[in-house]
Amino acid sequence: MQIDMREEADITVCRIKGDVDINSSPNVRKFFENIIKEKKKKVVVDFSEVNYVDSSGLATLVEILKKMRVYGGKLKMANLSERVLGLFEITKLDKLFDIVNGEAVKNFE
């Protein structure tokens, strides 16, 4: 699992490559600690190269979202595969997260 980050104007775009599971969740959490510490207001997580997310991955993403909301940060999930989107829908997390298709940077509020 690898995460690449780039800045586009005032938006931080993070592209995850690989599965987000019990093995990689601690790395995802650690990566986002700096984003949260810097209080980045607008963050997009690009899932275009993620094929699988397990329950520990979902828990980590919820934790990140909650921490960002404390300081008014917004988190968008972009380009989820049908399989990953289905998991968000089954767990009703599609109601919690802002999930978008395509280039989320252009549509950030």
One letter per element, helices H and strands E, the order comes to: EEHEHEHE
In the CATH classification, which architecture applies? 2-Layer Sandwich
Q: If strands are numbered along the chain, what order do they take across the biggest sheet?
A: 1-2-3-4-5
Total domain units: 1
CATH fold-level topology: Transcription Regulator spoIIAA
What ranges have pLDDT less than 50 throughout 5 or more consecutive residues?
none
Q: How does the helix and strand content classify structurally? A: alpha/beta
Helix content: 25-40%
The CATH superfamily appears as STAS domain
The largest sheet is:
5 strands, mixed
Find the count of extended strands (DSSP E, 2+ residues): 5
The CATH class is identified as Alpha Beta
Q: What's the helix count? A: 3
What value does the average pLDDT take? 93
- In whole angstroms, the N-to-C terminal distance is 29 Å
Q: How big is the Rg?
A: 13 Å
